[in-house]
Amino acid sequence: MRRKLAAGNWKMNGLTDALSELKALAQAPSPNQTDRMICPPATLVSGAAQIAGDIQIGGQDCHINESGAHTGDISASMLSDAGATAVIVGHSERRQDHGETDADIQNKTLAAWQSDLTAVICLGESLQQRENGDTLAVVASQLEGSTPDGATGANTVVAYEPIWAIGTGLVPSLEQIGEVHDALRAQLVERFGETEGNAIRLLYGGSVKPGNASDIFAVSNVDGALVGGASLKANDFQAIIDALDAA
Ligand code: PEP
Q1: pLDDT in tens, 140-165
Q2: pLDDT band at 1 (very low <50, low <70, confident <90, very high)
Q3: 161 catalytically annotated
């Protein structure tokens, strides 16, 4: 049985006082079947890790190298040293804003594993690709290209995030989400075998809110969510955690 996962991506939001939201989440009782993760900006990782209790703290990106002349970048070992146990790689905003390719994301995933971080690999189609009927081919190719050999349920989480649903309030139909998640599951099992292919958790991401969370979590092969905007406020994220734990 896969444990569920509610992961929050704060993106480039949050000064020190935002840690009070994390504190509120950490003070809530631990859910039974659900792991929780918050990925704050890098400046807050260390402070967050100190107050997070059993909430995992993750980075939002890492460099492929452990150290070196890469001004402004952060390595997986730095995140780990600051208390992170996971890192998001290949978020569509990184793919778009920084030109990251599947090969880059595969290398970042390897760097994450080397520092004992769980990699949360993001993928998803654009609106154009969806309208052209290319969604399944696009996500299959991203999954294949972004995931290194050796992925397991412990070192990897995959987040399906349609680009057009991120921060827009638009959400695919439940059938569309299920179709993609079932296809990703089949591909993971095919490549990594029954045990690990079934152990890797598949998150849905894109405008998950307290009001739509229960419906999304009832879809097959949805093991949780990667949540942007609604993870910034403890009350909203807690409602999503509760919906997931009850699903
Ligand atoms: C995200 O950034 O990963 C995301 C899903 O954002 P939002 O929940 O705000 O759509």
Answers
A1: 999 999 999 999 999 999 999 999 99
A2: confident
A3: yes
Q: 236 in ligand 1 pocket by Cβ < 6 Å?
A: no
Q: Is 244 in the pocket of ligand 1 (CB under 6 A)?
A: no
- Marked catalytic residue, from 63, 91, 125, 181: 91
Minimum CA distance residue for ligand 1 atom 3? 228
Please give the pLDDT value at position 207. 96
Specify the pLDDT at position 229. Answer: 97
Spacing, Cα 68 to ligand 1 middle (Å): 31
Q: Which two tokens stand for residue 211?
A: 């009001």
**Residue 1 · residue 31 · CB < 8 Å:** no
